[in-house]
Give the backbone structure.
Amino acid sequence: MFGVLIYALLYNATPLTWNMVKRTEMETAFADLTEELGTVRFRDCSPMIDEFILANDCHVVFYKGEDYDPNRLPAAVPGSEYALRTRWDVKQLIDPDSEAEMSFAISEHVIFNQEKQNEYTVVCLWSQKGENVLWEALKKTLPLIIAIIVLVSLLCSFIYTLLFARPVQKLSGVSGKIAKMDFTAKSRLKRRDEIGDLGRDLDMLSSNLDETITKLNKRTEELEREMQRTNELEKQKDVFFAAASHELKTPITIAQGQVRGMLDGIEPYNDYETYLPKTLSTLKRMESLINEILTASRMQAGNVITVQEEELGNILRSGIEEIEELLVVKGITLETRIENDLFFEGNKDLISMAVGSLLSNAVLYSSDGSSVKISAEAENGEIITRIRNTDSHIDEEDLPHLFEAFYRTDSSRSRRSGGSGLGLYLGRLIIERHHGTVTIENDGPDVVAVINLPNST
């Protein structure tokens, strides 16, 4: 379309330009002719006139005197084959109704050399019809023009594709991938125009969305884990209270039966000296169990505990003193290796309860005549306490359940000898509230309990 417009513009504008150029050329050539005619005689000028007419595709007419009047009879040029001779010929060329679209006439006064009547007026007439040479030239150059237009169009298309279409297609591809939640695609355009700005904004949007969705996914995973943990705690709480109710029911039933028997005077409960201490012992065991349940409930609820800097060695030594009598009864040898200055931030009473539970379990579940080894040392910013039962073993199927509430590894043990079943469970809760860990494992022929607590020094 652009080429057609240029072609039409050339076709309409060029004739005027061509006419002006042609007139200038003719005026120059005619001036040279008249100057040369002044050097020859009139009867010898025919070769020059005919050559000029043929060379310039024009007409020449002579008039005697200084005036140019188309109604006058032209002067005959001796020997010329192309100079105009009649008024009719002249009138045909200058007729206003002529079909010529471009025409002009140039006249000049000439004085020939060595002539008596040597003054003449020379007139040059030129005309061109509508089907002028321009159209012929345009028709000849049309294939070239078409080829140039096609090449220019292809070049423009290539430039457009390179500068606009291809980057836009790339941006479209990137936006499509972003719509499909693929944020790895980037345009990476380095242009400095609006398309480059759009590409950089799209890349930034992709990165921000990727970062945001990654955070959301991470947060979702954390929430799912938290929900799972909460659900697990709820299940554990239900199991805990169900077991606690069952454990409390037994001493309450025993104490209630003993008191009722004594009130009713039923034998053998009428022997007050024997059964009153037994009832008191049952009630104390129930009180201890209730205190442990309350402590476990506070640990599970995450209540704030009072902490200060404590020394673990002293707590371990106090716990050992409490089990000394049991060690003597069972004939168990005790070996200790406890370092000094094992400071930590914590609650002395709670840690004493946790350590005491592990120590008492180590003695209760050791065979008579065996040995218990206790060590405590600072290592890599932690206080590591190990309680080793020699010649002991825990069934592998029991290991994962040791820290569950009311779980006993030996079903043959009575509740009296086996404890409440909350010791290890409560001990783990206390240690974890102090940002530590506790494990019990088989180590060859021995059983080892390991407590890790952060060292405050």
User: Anything to note?
Assistant: The beta strands are 59-64, 100-111, 119-129, 308-311, 333-338, 343-346, 371-379, 382-389, 437-443, 446-454. The chain has three domains: 2-130, 181-303, 306-454. Residues 194-264 form the longest helix (71 residues). The two ends are 88 Å apart (CA to CA).
